[in-house]
Amino acid sequence: MKFYVCIKQVPDVDAPIQIKNGDLMQDTDRMVLNAYDASAVEEALVLTEEHGGEVEVVLVGPDKAKETIRKALAMGADKATHITTEDDVDYDSAVYANILATFFKDKEYDVISCGKQSQDTDAGLAGGMIAQHLDLPYATNAVGLSIEDDNLIAKRQGDSGQEIIELPQPCLVTCSNDMNEPRIPSLKGIMQSKRKPMETTALSDMNLDESALSAKTKVTGYMEKPEREPGQKFEGEPDELAQKVANLLDEEENVI
Amino acid sequence: MASNSFNIDDPFQFESELSEDDRMIMETARDYAQSKLEPRALKGNQEEHFDPAIATEMGDLGLLGSYLPPEYGGVDASQTAYGLIAREVERVDSGYRSFMSVQSSLVMFPIFKFGTDEQKERFLPKLATGELIGCFGLTEPDHGSDPGSMSTTAVKTDGGWILNGAKMWITNSPIADVGIVWAKAKENQDDEGEIRGFIVTKDMDGYSAPATKHKMSLRASETGEMVFEDVFVPDENAFPDIRGLKGPFTCLNSARYGIAWGTVGAAEFCYQKAREYVLDRKQFGYPIGANQLPQTKLANMLTDITQMQLLAWRLGKLKDEGRSHHSMVSLAKRNNCGTALEIARIARDMHGANGITGEYRVIHHVMNLESVNTYEGTYDIHGLILGREITDIQAFVPRGNDMPE
Questions:
Q1: How far apart are CA B48 and CA B56, in angstroms?
Q2: Are B25 and A15 inside 8 Å of each other by CB?
Q3: A108 Cα to chain B: minimum distance (Å)
Q4: Structure confidence by residue, pLDDT tens digits, A89-143
Q5: Which residue of A41, A52, A213, B67 has the smallest Cβ count within 10 Å?
Q6: The domain B14-133: what is its CATH number?
Q7: Does the distance separating the beta carbons of B24 and A67 come in below 8 Å?
Q8: Cα–Cα distance between B4 and A238 in angstroms, integer?
Q9: CB–CB of B209/B227 below 8 Å?
Q10: Rounded distance, CA B210 to CA B37, Å?
């Protein structure tokens, strides 16, 4: 089976990120593979190890994002396509979906997968948009994948139980990071990744019109998260306290 | 991003100078250290425990002997990459980094550098996977900074050597399958002898490696003795050509270089924890980080860390270009250990009473770095190495004083 995994390079959320004058300062120079995409790569590797096939990763991003492609190759992906953009593009989910859907138009595949969202914006939109463009059956936020009789079985986690969805192939699925623990590439894998095939296509050669490449949304500012209100502390006898808390939950918070 | 920004972890952006391979190796080491070592570190310290599975985990990822060629289990990684691995592992605990340093630089490296082809094939692949654990014996109870005066002897006999003596403060020794031991090799008892290296294995008769208990530092790694009572070591386990202190010092130089990097990780961790703490902790209605004393402490830490980072990074580059000198290693090891220890102590102080508990993990670094500042050439001895380099006058042996016998 042929797996395409869409991956993205994002700023390392463990590095210090500062907000100054409404701008996001993420010049830490630590860019990493989006953790949700890493789970998608891991699952594709597990499934192709079991059923045979090939995993190809696709990344839309600037030149320096090649390192992130190498990480996926070092994990075990067989090949890669890098759709190169300028360094300072400001694309929203719709633009990424337009680019990737155009890329997939003439490709053959059984499954396209990606993270359920990416850690830079947490929008969680690109996967569904690509599926719509390509008119593919799709499922989001999968916590487990398996293959049965040429169908992809996606397990989704809800608040009160699990949902099992059968998708005829070709299909698209977005992956939760609860799905697995992505393997850490070994040093050997890192060195071998240099010799794996990586095709580079300039975005400008893909003939997308200007409207497909203009963001439909605009981020107008960034703010620190608000500080949490301090909690209330009550003292007294257990009976009275229980009554007081119950009243509060009932009358003020309206949760009972 | 309109204007340039200031990275409060790496102000002079040394990481942006790293090659792609080196950055990827750093990331693997960081992922491993944070996901697999950090959860073990508190227990390791509280209970004086080193989980031997760490050896094979590191081996699987290729973190042991990374700079050796592929036929011996390495990946020809750069010296910079080796240093970056040390930094990520020591960010968690110097004890884990000590394990990695000893295995890589003090066991695999000497076998690779001084061993016969047969010795390399016999030991290196299994040391690289972590299937075998190694240790390195140079220091003795009465011979620390002055290893040339060692008492351990190897006397020639039919087909091999008879070893007698004891080595002390040996990282990994209680769990080691293989030991590199340096002894005065003598043709007969009266011979003055010269230092040679031998490979001992744990099954040899007369060899024991009792653990050193009640350490207050490096508790997450094993330390012990190596005791030799008429231990027969066959000729095929002796390094064929290397003679004198050059042998052990070549290995130590490699390990010391890794320590110069490792301590960067420990210092960065302590600084980051202190930064986090003073911004979270409120007293008198404000975060304590709003006060001048905590702020200037953080400023001093970051200034020192920047110097440590740049020293380590530059030394790695010089090593990769084949331009390093052992006194550069002394300078970097001495500076980075001493500075990291100072930073860890201040970070502990900034945590107030909370800094006393293991939960915040800073006091472990304070205690660990006391050892790191002492082992592999003490702070002062490296000062004397540099002093001799600068003045061309050795000051190891005090002169002009007739000491009583």
A1: 20
A2: no
A3: 31
A4: 889 999 999 999 999 999 999 999 999 999 988 999 999 999 999 999 999 999 9
A5: A52
A6: 1.10.540.10
A7: yes
A8: 57
A9: yes
A10: 25
Structure tokens of A56?
């190809």
Provide the token pair at B116.
């016969």
Asked if A70 lies within 8 A of B20 by C-beta distance, the reply is: yes
Which position among B131, B376, B389, B405 bears the catalytic label? Answer: B376
Interacting residues of B396 by C-beta distance below 8 A, sequence separation 6+: B145, B146, B381, B384, B388
Closest CA to B385 of B195, B198, B229, B253: B253
Inter-chain Cβ pairs, chain A and chain B, closer than 8 A: 70
Nearest CA in chain A to B23: A67
In this structure, are residues A54 and A43 in contact, taking their beta carbons and an 8 Å threshold?
A: no
Give the separation between CA B82 and CA B261, rounded to whole angstroms: 9
Min Cα–Cα distance to chain B from A14, Å: 11
CA Rg value for chain B: 22
Q: Residue B112: left (phi > 0), alpha (psi -120 to 50), or beta?
A: alpha
- A173-202 b/e (C-beta count within 10 Å ≥ 16 → b): bbbbbebbebbbbbbbbbbebeebebeeee
Measure the CA–CA gap between B165 and B148, rounded to whole angstroms: 14
Locate tokens 């016969």: which residue? Answer: B116
Cα of A64 to nearest chain B Cα, Å: 9
The full set of domain ranges for chain B reads 14-133, 136-243, 247-391
ipTM of the complex in this document:
0.93
Dihedrals φ, ψ of A167, to 5°? -120, 125
What is the CATH code for B136-243? 2.40.110.10
- The pTM of this model reads 0.92
Per the annotation, the verdict on B376 as an active-site residue is yes
Q: Could you tell me the two tokens for A30?
A: 């630590």
Give B87: exposed, middle or buried? Use CB within 10 Å, 0-12, 13-18, 19+: buried
Contact: B9, A16; criterion CB under 8 Å = yes
What's the one-letter identity of residue B231? V
Maximum alpha-carbon separation in chain B: 79
**Nearest-CA neighbor of A75 among A184, A191, A198, A192?**
A184
pLDDT tens-digit map of B330-387? 999 999 999 999 999 999 999 999 999 999 999 999 999 999 999 999 999 999 999 9
Using an 8 Å CB-CB cutoff, list chain A residues near B5.
Answer: 18, 20, 25-27
What domains appear along chain A, each with residue ranges and CATH number?
2-213 (3.40.50.620)
Residue B111 parent element (H or E) = helix B109-114
Written out in words, the top-level CATH class of the domain with range B247-391 is: mainly alpha
